[in-house]
User: What shape does this take?
Amino acid sequence: MTGTFTDISLMSATDQLIRVARRYAELEGVPLSTVSSRALNDGKKLGALERGADINVSRWERAMEWFSVNWPDGEWPSDVPRPEHRRTEIADEARR
Assistant: This one.
């Protein structure tokens, strides 16, 4: 089905981040502000994004990677691509 909010071709990067953050909050049983503090070191950022604020690309990438690395037991949203664990790759490169 195309044209729905969960159609990845129509979901913005910010929408993807919020979708992942809300799912994480659901799995952890914590408010979005707690998730925002954990993933972005800013308890107000995810709420601000929901209200139309912006986020730069590198911060978005770090947040999505944080979610991927720290994902709790439960399914990642199927309509959002899960990033690779770059931190492991970077750590491996540093050891060489």
Summary: The chain has a mean pLDDT of 87. DSSP finds five helices and no strands in the chain.
